[in-house]
Amino acid sequence: MDNRIVSRLTDLLGEDRVLTKPEDLLVYGYDATPMMHETPGCVLFPDSTEQIGAILRLANAERIAVVTRGSGTGLSGGSIPVPHCIVVCTVRMDRILEIDRANLTARVQPGVLTAKLDEAAKACGLFYPPDPGSIKISTIGGNVANNSGGLRGLKYGVTRDYVMALEVVLASGDILRTGTACMKDVAGYNLKDLFVSSQGTLGVITEILLRLVPKPASKRTLLATFPSIQAAAETVSSIIAEPIVPCTLEFLDRMTISCVEDYAHIGLPLDCEALLLMETDGHPLVTEEEARAMERIAREHGALQVQIAKDDFEAERLASARRSASPALARVAPTTILEDATVPRNRLAEMVTFIQKTAEKYQIRIGTFGHMGDGNLHPTFLTDERNTDEIHRVEQGFAEIFEKAIALGGTITGEHGVGLAKKRFLPALIGQVGLNVHREVKRAFDPNMILNPGKIFD
Ligand SMILES: Cc1cc2nc3c(=O)[nH]c(=O)nc-3n(C[C@H](O)[C@H](O)[C@H](O)COP(=O)(O)OP(=O)(O)OC[C@H]3O[C@@H](n4cnc5c(N)ncnc54)[C@H](O)[C@@H]3O)c2cc1C
């Protein structure tokens, strides 16, 4: 990066907040998406909104691209740098500014780790429900920018459902405050929601007001195995039709179950095609009744085995079957590509069967797990990026899976975002008019196209 720019950035932030040496930049060239890397021009660690405002004013005047980065755990390449860009890393802005018990809100800086907020809320008898699998390492800013989901999405929704207000530094360096602490607020356009899942393309989020809810008094955890995916999918439909809204309804296919058992030694039965992890939370009388009803429904649909956790320790053991899915699959092959095709819930069995047939067709390995209650699946390709022939077949496979998801009324990403990894599939989902509107919105917020250019769409 130009010495003149580096020296101005150093004046703004101090030397220890500006990285420019190639060996220091290397690690910031990646996120958690495989097969993507780009070296940035420099990496900055601002600690205030005003500093970010000054950085963006300079970048906008000099037409330098800016890529915002939280922890870099994204799975769609959202925080992969563009060549010679400035990376603005928010990890030093990591303070929980306030937990307001009267209004049930938390005001946080973007670099707060999700788990840290979860712990702080619990310490006050409150609860922040969105719990991505990366909860211990991802930042709230990254969660908002990606609208991250988690295992409790079925009952509690996703990050968007908890964002009440945002402070955002715009490309011009101006500071926008949008949203309030009011439960009802219809003044003007809903600008706040535009930033949720915008993946750093519209502004840098510098402060977030989040809604909290009362901590549920109890939770019951069940694990059931099934002779077919169909039986597991029908169990999910019957539970929802009962009507019960569990906080968790997670699914693992045969390949994932065997990888998890190899990795975590939980004692999972291997003679099954599908596994469901089911959790209900709330008043103890209600959770007891719902747990019994879910057990009955699973058995009615031919469950091979149903276990109900007797205490928190056992609940943790059963839940670890799902929480271990991603690391367990990652051990099996040098490269794992974790996708998140999502379909309406009544098309789940069809989608999972299609994924398995695609694996057979292209002779590739795909383990599938995911949030069955939300229709959000994670087909995980187990491959080796050095094997170019196999990578080619993997790419054909996942293109067909996305086409199928769209054909079933679903989407190409339920929670990881489009980023770089899925941008070529976006036009088929949103159409030309949708794409034009995206471009106009981008132009309105960022006329010089400095913010995370080339992400989501070209
Ligand atoms: C093991 C593992 C499990 C995961 N499980 C889940 C899961 O269950 N559910 C789920 O949804 N995701 C999951 N993810 C994906 C990832 O953790 C989430 O997308 C997370 O929200 C990213 O947070 P981050 O701080 O790492 O953001 P980064 O990866 O650094 O950034 C993500 C995007 O947000 C933008 N961004 C970051 N901070 C800001 C900001 N302050 N202002 C504007 N833009 C910003 C970046 O430019 C980028 O486009 C998982 C990832 C891993 C590695």
Strand content: 15-25%
Shape category: globular
Compute the number of strand runs. 18
| Biggest sheet, spatial arrangement of strands | 15-12-14-13-17-18-16
Give every kind of bound small molecule, once each. flavin-adenine dinucleotide
- Oligomeric state, counting identical vs distinct chains: single chain
- Average pLDDT taken over every residue: 96
What is the CATH third-level topology name of the largest domain?
A: Uridine Diphospho-n-acetylenolpyruvylglucosamine Reductase, domain 3
Concise description?
It is built from 15 helices and 18 strands.
Describe the model.
Helices cover 37% and strands 20% of the residues. The protein contains 15 helices and 18 strands. The chain has helices at residues 3-13, 22-25, 49-62, 114-123, 140-146, 153-156, 191-195, 229-241, 254-264, 284-300, 312-323, 325-330, 348-362, 388-407, 426-445, and strands at residues 18-19, 42-44, 66-69, 86-89, 96-100, 105-108, 126-127, 163-169, 175-179, 204-211, 213-214, 218-226, 248-253, 274-282, 305-308, 335-338, 365-371, 376-383. The strands form four sheets. The chain has a seven-stranded antiparallel beta sheet, with helices on both faces. A hairpin with a 5-residue loop joins strand 8 (163-169) and strand 9. The longest helix has 20 residues, at 388-407. It is globular and about 70 Å long. The model has no long low-confidence stretch (mean pLDDT 96). Flavin-adenine dinucleotide binds at residues 31-32, 67-75, 78-79, 90, 110, 132-134, 138-139, 141-143, 145-146, 148-150, 199-200, 204-205, 326, 415-416, 452.
